[in-house]
Amino acid sequence: MKGRVISMNRKASESPDAEERLSRLMVGQSPAMSEVMTMIRQVAQYPTTTVLLQGESGTGKDVVAHAIHALSSRSTYPFVDINCAAIPETLLETELFGVEAGAYTDAKASREGYLLRADGGTLFLDEVGSMPLVLQAKLLRFLETRSFRRVGSTKEMHVDLRVISATNVDLEAAVASRAFRDDLFYRLKVITIYLPPLRERLEDIEPLVDYFIQSYNNGSEIPLRIHPDAMALLMRYHWPGNVRELRSVIQRGQILCEDGEIRPEDLPESVRYVEKSDQQRLRELQAQMHLPIEGLDLRAYLAGIEQIFVREALERYQGNQVRAAALLRLSRDQLRYRLPKE
């Protein structure tokens, strides 16, 4: 089968409507997300380039994959995704490459795989780190030749598509432990985009909440809104489940709230009591501290603890001294006095 020919010169991501599509797909105003959006614009212009998306579960790797596809010259062709961890190893090969009739007992008819369905468009391999080694070798061959054979067939088939893969595991560590092929790793990571966790871009929480609220408001008789105290709790939470967890929390609030306003009591306990649990851990730590027999330099010890909290507060707010000082119950001048002298 002859693959479709995709223009290498059409810069879809530079058109005004492409920018509008990107703003609809990607929500965030942090420097980290601005960098991700810049990478999306650049990569979208090269429709054959292989892309690797890395980041914790729930950070939006699938959204970025869709955005790259939507802004590229492949956008009129299919976007096909496959979760490599959700399909048993014995079935993954036939799902990816297809199967020829009679290849095995239950193969009564030929069936196309994900590669053929994605011809002309984009194939998104989610959780690619879960792919078995035998199949990794076959995927590498496809990436190098853009040709493959159905299971049980000797006929070469050709397709033209972009491959985007994603993982929340450390592929370099997997390569070192021989759980992932090094040649495939380098073939997948021609361009790597890292999706930062939500706890590292707290300024994106409010626009994300607004986005989810607007999506749930669609067709609703009572407009959904969020109480400032509830928003303050969302800003203090550490979000282990990232954007996916935030979306679930807002959806829960929509169901439980009265009069269309999400209040603190409508949030999960893990969000409501995070500050109390952190404070409790600090109190427990204080209770365990004792003066060493040999004594200690109290001023230097306390200064070291102080520097830990100052550094963490600044990192939490990307260097914003006003917000960091407020978090530490200090004035801006008091915070500046505690900054390391250069």
Q: Would you give an account of this structure?
A:
Keywords: ATP-binding, Nucleotide-binding, Transcription, Transcription regulation. This is Sigma-54 factor interaction domain-containing protein. It holds the Pfam family HTH_8. The chain folds into three domains: about 10-195, Rossmann fold (3-Layer(aba) Sandwich), CATH 3.40.50.300; about 200-270, Helicase, Ruva Protein, domain 3; about 295-340. The chain starts with 15 loop residues before the first helix and ends with a helix. The protein has 16 helices and nine strands. The chain is globular and about 75 Å long. About 50% of the residues lie in helices and about 10% in strands. α1 (about 15-25) packs antiparallel against α3 and α2 crosses α3. It has a five-stranded parallel beta sheet with strand order 2-3-6-1-7. The chain has helices spanning about 15-25, 30-45, 60-70, 90-95, 115, 135-145, 170-175, 180-190, 205-215, 230-235, 240-255, 270, 275-290, 300-315, 320-325, 330-340; strands at about 50-55, 80-85, 120-125, 145-150, 155-160, 160-165, 190-195, 225, 260. It has about 350 residues and is an alpha/beta fold. A hairpin with an 8-residue loop joins β4 (about 145-150) and β5 (about 155-160).
List the helices and strands and how they pair.
Elements: H1 16-25, H2 31-44, E1 51-55, H3 61-71, E2 79-83, H4 89-97, H5 114-117, E3 122-126, H6 133-145, E4 147-148, E5 157-158, E6 162-167, H7 171-176, H8 182-188, E7 191-195, H9 205-217, E8 225-226, H10 228-236, H11 242-256, E9 261-262, H12 269-272, H13 274-288, H14 298-316, H15 321-327, H16 332-338
Helix pairs in contact: 1-3, 2-3, 9-11, 14-15, 15-16
